[in-house]
Amino acid sequence: MSGHDHSRRNRDAAPPSPGSWLGRVLATLVLTAFALFFIVPLAWLLLAPTKTDRELLLDAPFSIGTLSTLVDNWTSLLAFQRGLLWVWLANSAFYCLAALAITLAISIPAGYALALIEFRGRKTLLAVTLVVMLIPSTALVLPIFLELSAVRLIGNPLAAILPFSFFPFGVYLTYIYFSTAISRDLLDAARIDGANEFQVFLKVAMPLATPVIALVGFFSFTSNWNNYFLPYVTLPGRKSPIQVGLAELLSNVPAFNPTNAASTTISLSALALATLIAVAPVLIVFMFAQRFLVTGMTAGGTKG
Amino acid sequence: MTTNPEIPARPARGGRSPGRTGHAEAAQSRVAWLFVGPYTLFLLAFGLLPLIYTIFLAFTKRGAFAGITNFVKVFKDYRFLPAVEHVGLYLAVWLVSLVVLVVLLAVIVHAIGVRWLSTTVRFLFYIPGAVAGASSVMLWLFVLDPTVSPVAFILHGLGLNSFVEAVQADRLPVVLAVIAFWTGAGGWIVVMYGALNNISREVIEAARIDGAGPIRIAWSIQIPLLRKWISYMVILSFAGGTQLFVEPRVLAQASRGVVSQDYSLNQLAFLYAFKQSDFNGSAAISLMLLLVALVLSVAFVFRGGLFERT
User: Fold this and answer.
1) What kind and span of H or E run contains B64?
2) Which residues pair with B61 in a beta bridge?
3) Alpha carbons within 13 A on the beta-carbon side of A103
4) A171 touches chain B (CB under 8 A)
5) What is the Cα–Cα distance from A240 to A160, expressed in whole angstroms?
6) Which whole-number Å values give the CA distances from A286 to B49, B119, B261, B276, in the listed order?
7) Looking at beta carbons, which residues of chain B come within 8 Å of A105?
8) List of domains in chain A
9) Does residue A163 have a pLDDT over 90?
10) B153 touches chain A (CB under 8 A)
11) Which residues of A touch B131 (CB under 8 A)?
């Protein structure tokens, strides 16, 4: 459980001296400045789609536009190449959810076995998993591309789904979870009662696995949804997910590409709306997942 | 789950139940491989095999062994050294600001006594983490464009009156570091905050009674105890930063060529594969990048102290 749940700090016991008063003011200023730095771009993004390009250029940055402008921007995005945006979104959903299902199906049993069953090669598998987990996924993108093009899978949805499904961090999270949540004695008791290994897994471990399934699911979904590099090289064109599509939209924005002679153009505020739509699923998941984020990120360094 | 880096190891493993025979153990071992088998296949297919294939491509030319000619060719490429320099500059700016600011902000947030305020501040800090990949760059295109930017007054104050001026080559390491910091720092602040929570209150209290102020406590007690976490952050960020790709690529697309297509090493590897159809050259660059990440990762897993050897 997170440590801050039961650490009650009592900062105000001593009366503040002039020095600490100054310190407080400075600390408050620093915090406010950074809170603004982190939140201003997002706040702007939420408001921009309600404005026309003219309003974006001339009005105050945090003025609120009109609902009808929002609808106009929405319609113009819909119209772009006959709904290509929705194709990209559907692609993203398909790739991420399919990968999520495979990730859970392979990671949960693997993490369970690494944590609770003694077998030959366990330590090696665990060490390799840790090493691969710490390698940034982008480092493997071009190697995976080279491999997939050797087996002619480029352009096939599998070229995103399969690499997305390989998620060593998920195995590690599951391993940590089962190591701490279930004692081996409990499993041994079930075995003595005559349960075989699969029954032990299904009847003892799985009912307790909900938190780690949610955790692995959260990290798998958010990282795959935001992945740009891999699908950019393995799934071009109409098969692209939304992140790649978003960057493609950019070529149709005259404000950024004035020389572009494309017949359909995207306005700046429509581009802002597209950006908002692209991040919305992850943003929503994030809003409800602070605890996941904390536990997951720190688990990366928790002793196993 | 726990956020405690000093947590005692979980209950000792290997306590054999009496009466389990060697035969049963062997059977259990076989069953275990059914559990880990599918994952191991993915590990081989998308971890090990790409590495081996990349090594093969990097040292061959049209299928024949080519020694280090691919590497020599890449090194001699006029775009290679500038790309190394770009990535190096970006890493320097980013890592220094990441360490200094993340630690500073975590210590300050940790000192907030009001629970809801502390939670809110952490939430505000980490929520940009949801906007990663191409979308974060897309959002920053707007922020960096003085004509529409919500912080246009800052850009004008810095003498930047157009988007193109804001992404000039000499400013790019800073711009890229700001974007990376915006997306990623909040998560690390939350992590450091969690680690700070695990420093025992008695230690801090004793120091305070001895007359140590908050700065002294941070410098002498909190930061030394965060060291493992700081090195974890630096290693992961360094490895990730060398892979720079999406940010300069989208900026290149948006800036009408002001940001070059070959700004980073990964972009160069990409150009080799996609523009020059030179998979061997591409593999040579990828392999070098992959080795950097691999060496860091191996060193950290076995020497870093965060992962107990099991």
Assistant:
1) strand B64-65
2) B64
3) 32
4) yes
5) 9
6) 34, 14, 33, 40
7) 38
8) 14-79 (no CATH), 84-299 (1.10.3720.10)
9) yes
10) no
11) 42, 279, 282-283
A82 CA to chain B: closest CA distance, Å? Answer: 22
Which residues in chain B are contacts of A193 at CB distance < 8 A? none
Contacts of B180 in chain A (CB under 8 A): none
Distance between CA A269 and CA A48 in Å, rounded? Answer: 6
Lookup: tokens for A271: 């581009």
The residues in A 118-157 lying below 8 A from B, measured between CB atoms, are 118-123, 125-132, 134-136, 138-147, 149-150
Alpha helices in chain B (DSSP H): 22-43, 49-58, 69-76, 80-111, 115-126, 133-144, 152-157, 163-166, 172-197, 201-209, 214-217, 223-225, 227-242, 246-254, 265-274, 279-303
Give how far Cα A137 sits from Cα of A120, B90, B161, B224, B244, Å.
Answer: 28, 19, 37, 30, 12
Can you name the residues that pair with B64 across neighbouring β-strands? B61
pLDDT at B196: 87
- Token pair for residue A194? 């005559």
Short-list B194, B60, B57, B32, CA closest to A143:
B57
Q: CB-based contact (8 Å) between B105 and chain A?
A: yes
Distance CA A12, CA B196 (A): 19
Min Cα distance B165 → chain A (Å) is 14
- Which residue ranges in chain B fall short of pLDDT 70? 1-22, 304-310
Nearest residue to A74 via CA among A270, A279, A287: A270
Contacts of B231 (CB under 8 A, 6+ apart): B300, B304
For residue A249, give how far its alpha carbon lies from the nearest alpha carbon of chain B (Å). 10
Distance CA A102, CA A160 (A): 12
**What b/e readout covers A169-199, taking b as 16+ CB neighbours within 10 angstroms?**
bbbbbbbbbbbbebebeebbebbeeebebee
Q: Where are the domains of chain B?
A: 24-69, 80-261
* B194–A12 CB contact, under 8 Å: no
B294 vs chain A: nearest CA distance in angstroms? 6
- What is the ipTM, given to two decimal places? 0.85
Q: Which residues pair with B60 in a beta bridge?
A: B65
What is the pLDDT of chain A when averaged over all its residues? 83
Q: Does domain B80-261 have CATH number 1.10.520.10?
A: no
% residues pLDDT > 70 (chain A): 85
Over range A10-22, report the average pLDDT. Answer: 61
Question: Which DSSP helix (H) or strand (E) runs through A45?
Answer: helix A18-47
